[in-house]
Write a structure and sequence with these properties.
Elements: H1 9-32, H2 37-46, E1 58-59, E2 62-63, H3 68-87, E3 91-93, H4 97-126, H5 140-166, E4 171-174, H6 178-195, H7 200-229, H8 243-268
Length: 279
């Protein structure tokens, strides 16, 4: 019968230090972040998004924690990870070439719309780059849809990589097929259309899902990094064994968010979008 390896001295010490560090990081985030539930979510979005007001959806003139593009990207990524966890389990192979081609198309749409939008922004704020034509006038509808497509693409690649890293025994089938991608895409399109109604009933949950989706991606990446550094890849049999990696990922993610927040706040002096950037 195969026996579990005994934890090293470092792992034993880490099992005490990491949870304490996680508690301290969470407490620091609550203290530093703006007041209110949405203010705490703003602090997450502030670390990864420009948060320009005109490029964000609004709840009664109060912008969401992330701009329209980042809202789409991170809420869709969070939902895509959850969707795959339910329908794909421990499937650990990347999607087929056909599915990957669709995901690449999502990525290209994101890149094209983002570049076009950025050029338009620079023209509005600096008055330069007039020699570079815009393909079209950017808008929040396109930002939302191209962002959510990118979120699906990110999660579709990240999920099987996570399974490849975690499990002692994985399912060697593609984590996402055409059918699953179609269902997932339909869910995201329906949610996008609901977001475009500007109903607070929709936007409040999306504010939480998008910000927590951002945090979940960071926690996942840092948790996987911790597992690789600790040389624990392909040693797990049950999700309850992942608590230390999760706590480590959460701690590192919050430290990164706090570090970027404090640096940006030092330079700009505001929790809102970058000063002087509108349009």
């Amino acid at each position: 019968m195969q026996t579990q390896p005994q934890p090293s001295k470092f792992e034993t010490i880490a099992s005490w230090i990491v949870p304490l560090a996680a508690i301290i990081a969470v407490a620091a985030w609550f203290i530093i972040a703006p007041e209110g539930a949405l203010g705490k979510l703003d602090a997450i979005g502030y670390a990864v998004c420009h948060r320009i007001d005109e490029r964000s959806f609004q709840i009664d003139d109060r912008q969401l924690p992330l701009c329209a593009r980042c809202t789409g990207e991170f809420y869709a990524a969070g939902i895509a990870l959850l969707f795959q966890a339910v329908v794909s389990g421990r499937r650990s192979q990347l999607p087929s070439k056909g599915v990957l081609a669709i995901l690449v198309a999502f990525f290209l749409a994101f890149g094209i719309d983002g570049t076009n939008s950025y050029i338009y922004l620079l023209k509005q704020t600096s008055g330069g780059l007039e020699q570079i034509p815009n393909l079209y006038v950017p808008n929040n509808i396109l930002r939302l849809f191209t962002g959510s497509g990118m979120g699906i693409a990110l999660a579709s690649v990240l999920f099987p990589v996570v399974n490849q890293t975690l499990w002692r025994t994985a399912d060697n089938r593609p984590a996402l097929g055409f059918k699953q991608l179609g269902i997932l895409s339909a869910i995201i399109v329906i949610i996008n259309l609901l977001i475009l109604t500007d109903s607070p009933i929709v936007l409040y949950p999306i504010a939480y899902i998008s910000a927590l989706g951002t945090l979940s991606l960071l926690v996942t990446v840092f948790g996987i990094l911790w597992i690789i550094i600790m040389k624990q890849d392909n040693t797990f049999d049950h999700p309850r064994q992942l608590w230390l990696a999760f706590a480590s990922g959460l701690t590192l993610a919050l430290l990164l968010v706090l570090g970027i927040d404090l640096l940006r706040l030092q330079f700009t002096g505001t929790w809102n979008g970058f000063p002087g950037m509108t349009g």
